[in-house]
Each structure stands twice: as structure tokens, then as C-alpha cells.
């Protein structure tokens, strides 16, 4: 209870003044002919109208401006307004990377700084302009292999300001007497179990005679697809005498890839790989993961290979991605080849 003298904990509150705004953009695609073929000075081409913040706008484009060697762009408020409109505008070029059969979106290069636009009273049409060299637009268009250039106009319309309640800070944390929780050791323990072979009830035998002891319950729990592939009716299995672990023969998988596959099943982690062997190890493991329907392992291997795409590996990596339906890995290869210098290096390396 607070005493009459006003003693006690004071109340507190907070609020903020924030801008009420609407944001949008309009892409104006300009055919290269409009930049290369002669046009009379001052000829105006208008964009289709677009709406941002409840107002109608247009971009006015002059292929040949009054400034020699330049083109000009204007943002115009294309309506009669009852009161002043305040906005912010920025023009930029949206570039596309092109190769033989695909387009890679998109990179922005600013043509102007963000600038303010404000109408002066009701019914006034207001504009904001930017000038850029025609040769710069043509060079960017040629560099990215396209026959057109796209100008993006970002518009922010300010509708005023309003008060908003501030988010209250979280209450201070009380000092806990609980001891810190040690990290989980499940991954380590399961990895040790695989390494030691304790309690193994199945042995996998590969084409080369290598044998790998494992535990049926772990593999069955980790993947129904692995369980069906390795222990189903189609598996080649023979039981050893005197209660020894059964033998499951696995064909078409290398020892390194199968060892890593088992390790992943027990620890959910990729193997440690020696420097210089990354591509071959991850490629073999990706193929094994695809065969045994381990989608997460397949993606992990594909991501590792994406980081290692270069002129020497792109041919085999692209073929691997096609063979095992790895769309992200395929896109990384094609993105690499989209650079003319990389394409020439790959052709020189592989004689494509």
C-alpha cells in the first residue's frame, strides 16, 4: 500500500512516434532498340500507371534527354490530389545473368540516391528526375547478355505519423540456483557403439569383402527405407551358425561411402574428410544417400559440393546432380558456368 506521502514504486510507461508509410516498386523494362536507334530529343515515353500508397504514379522516360549522351527518367504523380503528397523515390537497374538455357535473377545497381518528393498543395502534378549515361545502360545490358534493361523505381509514400505503444522490456531474470545443463553425449555414445561393434546383430558385407557390424534396431529406427533395402525380402542375407550375427550383402557401394553412411545413421553427422578428397567422398556419399533414400544426408552432401564447384569439378558435379536429381547443386553448376571466364576455363579443362 502506498502511503499518503507518495512513497512506493513509481509507475512507468513508454511510447514511440512512428512513420505511417506504404512501400512499393515498379519495373520498367526498356528494349535495347529504344537506346540504340535515334529518337528526337525530348521524345517522351510513359510507363503504364501503377499504384503505391493509394496514389497513381507513372514513370516518364526520355531516350534522348536535353543533356547530350544521357537518358532521363521521371517519377510523376499522375492524378489530381486534394492535399500534399510526400514520398521518397530511388531508381536502380535490375540486372539478370544469362547463359545458354537459363536466367539467374536479380542484382540491383543504383542509378540515384534515395530522394524526397513532395507536392506543393492540392491538384499539383509533381515529378522527380534522374539522368544517366546511355552508354552505361548499354554496357550493362551487353555484359549480362540481354536485349533489354529493366529500371526499378522504388517508392515510399508517407501518410503521416502516429503514436505507438513501446514494447515493455522483459522482466529481469531471477538468479537461478539450478546447475548448468551439460551438453548431450548421445551422438558420441552412439558413435562409440558403432565403432566398438558391441551388441551388433547384423554384419554388412560389401563387394570387396569388407565387413561392417551394426545394430538392426538403430538402422530400422533411423530410416524405413534403409530398413526395407537392407532387411527386406530383396536383401541378400545368410545367417551365421551358433547364433552369430546375420550377414547382409550390399552391392554397388564403396567401403568409404558405406562407412560414412553408417556413421551418419548413428551420429547424424558428416564424416571428417582429408584435404583434397572432399569432392570424391561427398559425391560417393551423395550417391549412397540417394540409393537408401536419406534425403537429409543427400542435401548435406550436395551443399558441400556446391561450395567446391570450380573449373576442374563442374563437369562431374553437374553430371552427378543430373543423375541424382539435385536441383540446388545443378543450379550452382549452371550459375558458375554463367560467367564467361568460368565457362572458358571449364572448356579448357575438360575440352567440352
TrEMBL record:
Gene3D superfamilies: 6.10.250.3030, Apoptosis, Tumor Necrosis Factor Receptor Associated Protein 2, Chain A, Potassium Channel Kv1.1, Chain A. InterPro entries: BACK_BPM_SPOP, BPM1-6, BTB/POZ_dom, MATH/TRAF_dom, SKP1/BTB/POZ_sf, TRAF-like. SMART domains: BTB. Pathway: Protein modification; protein ubiquitination. Signal peptide: none annotated. Residues 200-274 form the BTB domain. Belongs to the Tdpoz family. PANTHER family: BTB DOMAIN-CONTAINING PROTEIN, BTB/POZ AND MATH DOMAIN-CONTAINING PROTEIN 1. This is BTB domain-containing protein.
Amino acid at each position: 500500500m502506498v502511503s499518503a506521502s507518495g512513497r512506493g514504486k513509481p509507475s512507468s510507461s513508454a511510447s514511440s512516434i512512428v512513420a505511417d508509410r506504404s512501400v512499393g516498386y515498379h519495373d520498367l523494362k526498356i528494349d535495347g532498340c529504344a537506346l540504340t536507334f535515334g529518337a528526337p530529343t525530348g521524345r517522351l515515353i510513359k510507363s503504364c500507371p501503377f499504384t503505391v500508397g493509394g496514389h497513381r504514379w507513372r514513370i516518364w522516360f526520355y531516350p534522348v534527354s536535353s543533356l547530350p549522351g544521357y537518358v532521363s527518367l521521371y517519377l510523376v504523380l499522375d492524378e489530381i490530389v486534394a492535399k500534399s503528397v510526400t514520398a521518397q523515390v530511388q531508381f536502380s537497374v535490375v540486372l539478370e545473368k544469362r547463359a545458354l538455357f537459363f536466367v539467374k535473377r536479380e542484382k540491383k545497381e543504383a542509378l540515384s540516391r534515395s530522394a524526397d518528393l513532395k507536392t506543393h498543395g492540392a491538384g499539383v502534378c509533381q515529378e522527380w528526375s534522374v539522368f544517366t549515361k546511355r552508354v552505361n545502360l548499354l554496357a550493362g545490358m551487353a555484359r549480362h547478355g540481354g536485349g533489354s534493361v529493366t529500371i526499378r523505381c522504388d517508392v515510399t509514400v508517407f501518410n503521416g505519423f502516429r503514436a505507438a505503444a513501446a514494447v515493455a522490456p522483459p522482466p529481469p531474470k531471477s538468479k537461478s540456483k539450478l546447475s548448468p545443463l551439460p551438453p548431450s553425449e548421445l551422438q558420441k555414445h552412439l558413435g562409440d557403439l558403432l565403432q566398438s561393434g558391441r551388441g551388433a546383430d547384423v554384419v554388412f558385407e560389401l563387394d570387396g569383402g569388407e565387413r561392417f557390424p551394426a545394430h538392426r534396431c538403430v538402422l530400422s529406427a533411423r530410416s524405413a527405407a534403409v530398413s526395407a533395402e537392407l532387411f527386406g525380402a530383396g536383401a541378400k542375407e545368410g545367417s551365421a551358425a551358433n547364433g552369430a550375427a546375420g550377414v547382409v550383402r550390399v552391392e554397388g557401394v564403396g567401403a568409404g561411402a558405406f562407412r560414412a553412411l553408417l556413421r551418419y545413421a548413428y551420429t547424424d553427422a558428416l564424416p571428417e574428410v582429408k584435404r583434397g578428397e572432399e569432392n570424391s567422398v561427398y559425391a560417393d556419399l551423395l550417391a549412397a544417400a540417394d540409393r537408401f533414400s536419406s534425403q537429409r544426408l543427400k542435401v548435406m552432401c550436395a551443399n558441400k559440393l556446391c561450395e567446391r564447384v570450380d573449373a576442374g569439378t563442374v563437369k562431374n558435379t553437374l553430371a552427378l546432380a543430373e543423375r541424382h536429381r539435385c536441383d540446388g547443386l545443378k543450379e550452382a553448376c549452371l550459375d558458375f558456368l554463367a560467367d564467361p571466364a568460368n565457362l572458358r576455363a571449364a572448356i579448357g579443362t575438360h575440352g567440352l
